[in-house]
Amino acid sequence: MIIHLVEHSALLLALCWLMTLNSRYWEHHDNAAKLVSGVLLGIACVVGMSIAIELEAGWVFDARSVILSVAAFVGGPLVAGIAGVIAAGYRIWLGGAGMGGGLAVIAFSVLFGLAYRYLQQRDQVGKGIVSLFCFGFLVHTALLLHFSLLPIPNRPSLALEIGLPMLLVMPLATVCLGWMLEDIKRRIQDERELRIAATAFEVRQGLLVADAHNRILRINQTFTDITGYKSAEVVGREASLLRSGRHEASFYQAMWQQLVEAGRWQGEIWSRRKNGDVYPGWLSISAVRSPQGQITHYVSSMEDLSERKASEERIRDLAFFDALTGLPNRSLLLERIQRVMDTASRSGRYGAVLFLDLNSFKSINDLHGHHTGDQLLCLVAKRLNDAMYTSDTVARLSADEFVIVIENLSTDHQHAADRAEQYARRIHQLLSKPYTIGLLELRRGASLGITLFKDGAYSVDELIQHAELAMQQSKSSFEEKIRFFDPTMQEAVSKRLLLEEDIRRGLQAEEFIPYFQPQLNDIGQATGAEVLARWAHPQHGVLAPGVFIEVAEQAGLIEQIDLQMLRQACQQLAAWQREPDTAALTLAVNLSARLLYLPNFVATLLEFLTQSGADPYRLKLELTETMLLDDMSAAIARMHELREHGIRFSIDDFGTGYSSLSYLQKLPLDQLKIDQSFVRELPENSSSLAIIKAICALADSLQLEVIAEGVETEQQYHELLDLDCRYFQGYLFGRPMPLAEFSHWLRANQTTRPFRFPL
Prior knowledge:
The protein is of the alpha/beta class. The protein contains 29 helices and 23 strands. Strands 15-16-18-19-20-21-22-23 form an 8-stranded mixed barrel, surrounded by 4 helices. Strands 4-3-7-6-5 form a 5-stranded antiparallel β-sheet. Strands 9-10-8-13-14 form a 5-stranded mixed β-sheet, with helices on both faces.
């Protein structure tokens, strides 16, 4: 009997395997799956009854109680109801004396199963093996009690025959069938948290799963779309391959510390794509821990913020930048001025606000249309932007009004004003150049107002108003196109501008004349002179260089003064050549820093020599070390070109700049001039003594002459002689003097006789 029940139960369990296929096939249609499951279980009951053991006529014994009870608590009322109806129908068809008892078995099994399901859903009973066995034992014990009450012939013997096998086999069959169906159900559900998880994994964020060592285990398609890396290219590699290099090590240390402590980190981060591009992103990392609390995995979600940042930048541009010119607008200007004011308050260095207005801009729109006016504004903006230093700001305030903010000028008020004024003059000159728009060539000057600031004495709006007021004053003035708001600064600027205009007038009138300071050799003979510029002003008399040189340099007029000195020097050399006593004299002329690099300088100087008839060998050009460093290759080329015509060169103020043996070897030099700062400290200063001695030794090795300037005492003269210096210049021999006085000096100290020191 037991073997028969085991075989019978195994057959029924094999039939129940169809449940798996059914569940998979109908997994997306829950009601259909239950309907088919009920039919299959009902068929399983029919098969079981068709091969059942017939104990007496009409009394059959099978495993339908197992199938129906398990179907009820696993599948629910619908599955159990369908299976029970099919089983009951077939039992009625079989008929016989035991039909009523058989129908009761079907009903009891379904009801017990539903009751168990009800209790289990309320967590009053479990689903484990022990619970299932107890459930099966209870069901079949109840059936045996029911069987013992039925009017069956030979009931005691039949109860004894089937009772023990039923209580041994059927509970175990209940456990097996219940476990099988629950496992099927559980697997189906698991395959569904997986499908849902897989679907959730393919979201708009890039997802990355890494192990505890930060090695990548899985990515989604969005990750590939963002980074360019495919799964095969990153799985097994460390997630650090995405690092951009823009964050310091401390950034990542803080990130991992928070991950370990809090289990989560999120924030903006710069990452690198496969193609090397760096992009901004939002990264969220969660640590996954084991039941023991140890980190086993990291799950990261990332979002590419490139488009969002670009949109934010576009919005910011609309809010803070002028749509036509691309310059900062008033909103950003106010912010920048406040920032510079704060910096100035901390550093104690002055800043400046320049208010600029184009002259007669309205006429451009009236004559040529607004399109041309817009193009002009864009060209003005480009010139201003190109002329700015990185720390400065230029903004468009309104139609043709611009504001420039300059910071870090100087701690000294006058020096800061000078620098701001130079800045404004450069801008004014830049904007005065012609503008080409199509076939048009337009010229538009500008009026500028300047105000200085160092602390919070005025608000941002007040500073702009002050600069605008100064601009309006400059616009109302016919001559002055640059004005300071500060009256004292304005007075200084006005004087400077008047002096500049006076220098221009003086150049046209050829009021700049040469003065001559004698140069002698070591036996007291006059070898020539250095030409020094003086201004023979018609109202103020002869003016020294200190009065006009700085203004001339700032106004770009120093080159014209130097050229006038060169032309007059050539004329004087030619005049001396005609007299035997002065034919051997030389003249040294200083060149300004920019004159040597002018494209037409060589041709102009050669023209002076040709027109005057002067001997080029008697002309000596004095250059400073610093001006040579501006463009050494160009300087060397110009000097060689002039040297081919016989012109000689001397390095002025040698030893005070960036003296280098390398340039001394490259330059076609004839003479080194020892700076007067060393000579003045002789003989007391041992350092100056050593420097002069070194210069003389260096010049001797390079076969160059050495001349010392600033010689004022006989003691200095004799010290220099002892150091092998052979040429001299200074007040000891003569101050700079006009030509007539220098000619008298020469007659009193003929070049053929040694110089006599005055008693």
